[in-house]
Hints:
With 446 residues, the protein is mainly beta. It has helices at residues 2-31, 50-55, 77-82, 114-117, 177-180, 366-370, and strands at 35-48, 58-61, 68-76, 88-93, 101-105, 107-111, 123-128, 133-139, 141-155, 159-166, 170-175, 185-196, 200-205, 207-209, 222-223, 227-247, 257-262, 265-271, 280-287, 300-305, 313-314, 320-327, 331-337, 340-343, 349-353, 358-364, 377-382, 391-401, 407-409, 412-420.
Amino acid sequence: MENEKAxxxxxxxxxxxxxxxxxxxxxxxxxxxxxxxQEYLDIPIEYLYESTLTDRGLMLVEDxxxxxxxxxxxxxxxxxxxxxxxxxxxxxxxxxVTSAGKQRxxxxxSYTNPKFNNNANAIQKERASFGMATVNISELYSRxxxxxxxxxxxxxxxxxxxxxxxxxxxxxxxxxxEDIEPISYAKVTLDIGNSAVETVSRDLELQFYDxxxxxxxxxxxxxxxxxxxxxxxxxxxxxxxxxxNFTDAPGCRARNxxxxxxxxxIAVSGDATMLKNVETLxxxxxxxxxxxxxxxxxxxxxxxxxxxxxxxxxxxxxxxxALRIRFKDMTxxxxxxxxxxxxxxxxxxxxxxxTGSLAVKVFGTEADVSALTGEDIAVTVDxxxxxxxxxxxxxxxxxxxxxxxxxxxxxxxxxxxxxxGGEEPPPEEATDPPPEDEPTGEETGx
Length: 446
């Protein structure tokens, strides 16, 4: 039993010794700096600036062009072992190609692993299957072809659709003549789904077909655009309620009016997307101060042109609408106030109001106007423009009402006299009494 255990221990020790030895050998081999070579076959070549060729009326033809290259690379065993073939990047520039025909261009070998790109000596090219890449350049053959759209799906009931609009009803295709000649037309397919209720617009990929309707391989077909936007406008007819945007003011509130609009609605046809959340059509604005302040029982009429949203059609055919409006409860009165105050009183000046009481015309509901007194009206005079003035002036006054919902009619001003602070009003001149009759000094005797 003990012999078996000893035997197993010897095997384990032997395996450990082998692993340690292999590790030491591998470390010494990888870190010694000894160079090795490795062959990499069929590395793809990426050709740069093909679009520049297209601008010059040229194209790169795969037939006759070197598409891959075999490379033998040299480096330390550690670096070679770290390099994966997917990290090798071979590029060739077509920037200097200006004519058709087979020709040779330089290529460059680099690596997507920054470890090797940052150190030019880490990996070196030992050999290559060719020194320069051969490219086959051909002149482009071009044609202009029509683009059609196949429509799939349907619009919802009570909706209608127009014609499909394409961002590019025709495109230019370029390539080898044998690839371009068979093209009869290009097509996109627009799927609007079932029961579409709004306009559909999508960018769609172009497909090319021959005269028999067979789909062509477009790998060698260069189009002026890759995608075409197709738009199908979906229309709907809706009844829109006509409305007016009222502008309120103190004493003139929309809630205190009675009004109606003729006609109340119109039928409008237009883009379903535009009209999706639209239920009203605004005729315009109406300032309720224009209605006046008289308690008239008659309606006032204002006419409006009906302006439709862009792209919509007036199905009703009515082009004008009338607003008829009046106040339900409106009265006016004149209230006098002596509540006059100053703003920006000139420094060192004294101001006297020659207008001691101001009659203000107010309007509003019967309840608000009847409850108003002179104490509820404030008159404020701003003397900011009179800081250097002296004398008597007529100055604009701002009138405010501090009670109820009451409006003010007209503009107001008061007359003021401005004097220096210590100056008193000049006294009236005294009039001397008439002299008494002086005695004549004559004696009367008897």
